[in-house]
Specification:
Bound molecules: adenosine-5'-diphosphate, magnesium ion
CATH class of the largest domain: Alpha Beta
Strand content: 15-25%
Number of domains: 4
Radius of gyration: 34 Å
Number of strands: 30
CATH superfamily of the largest domain: Phosphoenolpyruvate-binding domains
Length: 896
């Protein structure tokens, strides 16, 4: 193509395709040309050629070289210079550039076209022998390293020796003759290492450089980088051949720099960058000399500075996005060498997007589209100080990796038991390390800044609890923990109790280093708040959705929360309701004992006593919860988990009793408990006495819980709040189960309301977790006024995978071996489980068109799943408080 617009026309205006063909660097160089920004003359060889070249076993595809020669002619015409000319030689750079940037992975050769002859011509032209021979030796060095694959060390070493010998400290002390001598040393290196002479023919130099850039696509570090970042291996790199401009032609009018059009850390609208006088190429980035702030340019070359500022504005106006540019000034003339959309911190991302909407540069939709779920995550959770992190990575401090289970960074001293973590947390930050976690470990988790486990997957206990409470967590690290010796080992490296570790729950990495973290103050982030507000507005017809006015455009986001404190946090993150309050979480700690007493005792009075105690405690809990969520719905689920979670551990109990018996003692209470526990023991507790079945078997629990919920609401109302309670019956598979329980819930609550002379609407609904429930949705609507999908259980039962075991066993292997496309506990299986969901929603809404249908499983916080739920026509997703902002963004992405 002569012009970028021709390419664009051919691809029907699709910039993505054009960029795929020309690479990011090439496409943007062409776009800069098209809008009149000064770019050194050049041309781009497409990624297609690269792929073909590799396919042919390192041969240029037919016709490519001929086309390159024609393009080169054009460049010669444009510049009035000629390749290899003895009077006015053209020098070029050969630059790699893939569609997606892979910083530092592939290479660029500068100063191509210099040889013994053209060097002399350049001296005539520039009258600067030092500059010419410095450039020439840079070519030989770059060519040797990049094209011929000679280790950089092999060049650095003789240069170092030479400088020592001559008493030089810095490169800029070397004179022309010195560089000539270094050049000879370098030529000798090539001869010695490769047995060839540095090619004097410029055309040969060009050809070999193009081949080297093509081949660099498949060097191991580039392959590894793509594996890590998910860039497809099939894209290939483009090659840009471009006239050299020189920032190293003296201290006065030449130099090179890099800049951002806005501040990449905080987003402030100001040019932010660095500049070096008398420098070439990578000198700024490499930090060889201290670069100056961009304003230094204004002091010395104000006209250039002025032009630079204007052209940066022009670039932003054209790309409608913050840019990151590389530029060079050659004897007072400004050239742009590269521009691309700038990487920036999450804080900067939110501010720049907000500002650009205010400036009228982009609309709200565009701004929202450019924000990613991980930007939101980064705002909510502490992050490592990027400089220290880089250092730690360089020093090989990455200790282990696992499943990124709960986002955020944390640092502390590592301990191996819950108790020790609680104890040591008084003295400083701690990190918990466990094989896996159980409810017993929760105290230690709360005391810790973060945790990592050897086993488990994304829905393991550790992961779920950590996410709910915003504790950074990595699971399934495959480390070996020796709890006696108090060590943890992997890959031959062992850490001891009390060692500093840093964990990143966003990437799933554990470092054996102390890396400080940075936390953003959300209250101060009005841009963040405003943009999420825009998301809500797009999703709803008018601001916050009015439940009575029917389904909104997109999903609402509710939260899973068990306590008033949880709920308050969720509300501050923008939750529009509580989709799941797990009542059994109120039975933790001391209260577990009361419930256990209720279950185990045969004595009627004792049973009643235990229930009454629980009722008082729960009533208070609910009252506080409803007050915290006044005006917004709160879905309370009746007791749900398998019974054994409330019973003593059977093995342990058996051991205890037998030990006592062995000593000739007989503890009546323990004996009874064991008998009862044996009776209640189930082989498959997850398919056993749980959910609605518990309510049916332990009948008194239903009335107690309903009373506590209703009374809690009445109390809140009497205090002037507006509670909106809803009661959810879990794990229903047959309508008769609802028929059994729902009327009692209705009766108990209505009687209590009447007795108190208070009017509150209490909706009763059901949780859909068993495939059969999906198949009989219309029959359920007779008793249920809302549905809420428990997608964890629904996934478990539809696949027949135990969610507690699958992820530490075969499931991840399935994913690795492409037997499954992804982990269905992380992102909902749209084809199978999704089909059940869709069927259930559609058939359920046939009889109850305005029915609320939500999701309250872990999938409610997963962006991909959210898109699916939105399309399935759900009313809301409910996720842990810390996922609420991400879900708000994703709900909006789903409808834009
Ligand atoms: P990367 O993709 O690693 O940034 P580039 O192709 O941008 O590699 O090249 C690295 C540096 O080399 C550029 O930042 C620029 O300073 C310098 N450079 C590349 N081409 C030229 C050129 N034609 N004239 C002057 N300097 C160049
Ligand atoms: Mg660059
Ligand atoms: Mg469930």
């Amino acid at each position: 193509f002569e012009d970028i617009n021709d390419a664009l026309e051919m691809y029907k205006g699709d910039w993505k395709k054009v960029t795929g063909l020309l690479g990011g660097k090439g496409a943007n160089l062409a776009r800069m040309c098209a809008i009149g920004i000064t770019v050194p003359s050049g041309f781009t060889i497409s990624t297609e050629c690269c792929n073909k070249y590799l396919e042919l076993g390192n041969e240029f595809p037919e016709g490519m070289w001929d086309q390159a020669l024609i393009a080169l002619k054009k460049v010669e015409e444009n510049t009035g210079k000629k390749i290899g000319d003895k009077k006015n030689p053209l020098l070029v750079s050969c630059r790699s550039g893939a569609a997606q940037s892979m910083p530092g992975m592939m290479d660029t050769v500068l100063n191509i076209g210099l040889n013994d002859e053209t060097a002399k011509a350049m001296v005539e032209l520039t009258n600067d022998e030092r500059f010419v021979y410095d450039s020439y030796r840079r070519l030989v060095q770059g060519f040797g390293a990049i094209v011929l694959g000679i280790d950089d060390e092999k060049f650095e070493h003789p240069l170092g020796n030479y400088k020592k010998e001559k008493g030089f400290k810095f490169d800029n002390e070397l004179k022309a003759d010195n560089w000539k001598e270094v050049l000879e040393l370098y030529n000798a290196v090539i001869k010695k290492e490769k047995g060839i002479e540095f090619p004097q023919d410029p055309m040969e130099q060009i050809k070999m450089s193009i081949k080297a850039v093509f081949s660099s696509w498949n060097v191991p570090r580039a392959i590894q980088y793509r594996e890590r970042t998910g860039i497809p291996h099939t894209l290939g790199t483009a090659v840009n051949l471009q006239t050299m401009v020189f920032g190293n032609m003296g201290e006065e009018h030449s130099g090179t720099g890099v800049a951002f059009t806005r501040n990449p850390s905080n987003g402030k609208k100001e040019i932010f960058g660095e500049f070096l006088f008398n420098a070439q190429g990578e000198d700024v980035v490499a930090g060889i000399r201290n670069a100056l702030p961009i304003s230094a340019l204004n002091d010395k070359l104000p006209k250039c500075y002025e032009q630079f500022i204007q052209e940066c504005a022009k670039l932003e106006n054209y790309f409608k996005e913050m840019q990151d540019v590389e530029f060079t000034i050659e004897q007072g003339k400004l050239y742009f060498l590269q521009t691309r959309n700038a990487k920036r911190t999450a804080v900067s991302r939110f501010k720049t997007m907000f500002d650009m909407v205010e400036e009228g540069l982009i609309d709200k939709k565009t701004a929202i589209k450019r924000i990613s779920p991980s930007d939101v995550d980064m705002m909510l959770h502490p992050q490592f100080d990027p400089n220290v992190l880089k250092l730690a990575q360089k020093q090989g401090k990455l200790f282990a990796t696992g499943v990124a289970a709960s986002p955020g960074a944390a640092v502390g001293k590592m301990y191996f038991s819950s108790k020790k973590c609680v104890e040591m947390a008084k003295e400083g930050p701690v990190i918990m390390c466990r094989p896996f976690t159980k409810p017993d470990d929760v105290d230690g988790m709360f005391a810790s800044k973060g945790l990592f486990t050897a086993e488990g997957g994304a829905t393991s206990h550790a992961a779920v609890v950590a996410r709910q409470f915003g504790i950074p967590c990595v699971v399934g690290c495959n480390v070996i923990i020796d709890e006696e010796k108090k060590t943890v080992t992997i890959n031959g490296i062992t850490l001891n109790e009390g060692d500093w570790v840093s964990i990143d729950g966003t990437t799933g990495s554990i470092y054996s280093a102390k890396i400080p973290t940075i936390q953003v103050k959300l209250e101060e982030q009005k841009h963040f708040m405003s943009i999420l507000q825009w998301c809500d507005e797009f999703c709803s017809k008018e601001g916050i959705r009015d439940i009575k006015n029917g389904p909104s455009r997109g999903l609402m986001v509710w939260a899973n929360a068990d306590t008033a404190e949880d709920a308050t946090r969720a509300r501050s993150f923008g939750a529009q309701g509580i989709g799941l309050c797990r009542t059994e979480h109120q039975f933790l700690g001391d209260r577990a004992g009361i419930l256990r007493e209720f279950i185990l005792t045969e004595d009627k009075d004792k049973k009643k006593e235990a229930l009454d105690k629980l009722e008082v405690l729960q009533t208070k809990d609910f009252e506080e919860l409803f007050i915290a969520m006044t005006d917004l719905p709160v879905v309370v689920r009746l007791i749900d988990p398998p019974l054994h979670e409330f019973l003593p551990d059977l093995l342990e109990l058996t051991r205890e009793v037998y030990e006592l018996r062995g000593k000739g003692e007989k503890n009546e209470e323990k004996e009874l408990m064991l008998k009862k526990a044996e009776q209640m023991h189930e082989s498959n507790p997850m398919l056993g006495l749980r959910g609605v079945r518990l309510s049916i078997v332990l009948r008194q629990l239903v009335a107690m819980q309903t009373t506590a919920i209703t009374q809690g609401a009445i109390n809140a109302k009497k205090k002037g709040f507006n509670p909106v309670p809803e009661i959810m019956i879990p794990l229903v598979g047959h309508p008769n189960e609802l028929k059994e329980i729902q009327p009692e819930v209705e009766e108990v609550s209505q009687n209590l309301l009447k007795k108190n002379n208070v009017e509150i609407e209490i909706k009763i609904g059901t949780m859909i977790e068993i495939p059969r429930a999906c198949l009989v949705a219309p029959q359920l609507t007779k008793y249920a006024k809302f549905f809420s999908f428990g997608t964890n259980d629904l996934t478990q039962m539809t696949f027949g995978y135990s969610r507690d075991d699958a992820e530490s066993g075969f499931l991840l292997k399935y994913v690795d071996n492409n037997i499954l496309p992804n982990n269905p506990f992380k992102s909902v299986d749209q084809i199978g489980v999704g089909r059940l969901i869709k069927m259930c929603v559609d058939e359920g809404r046939e009889s109850q068109p305005m029915m609320d249908v939500g999701v309250c499983g872990e999938h409610g916080g997963d962006p991909k799943s959210i898109k699916f739920f939105s399309e399935a026509g759900l009313t809301y997703v409910s996720c842990s408080a810390y996922r609420v902002p991400v879900a708000r963004l994703s709900a909006c992405h789903a409808i834009l």
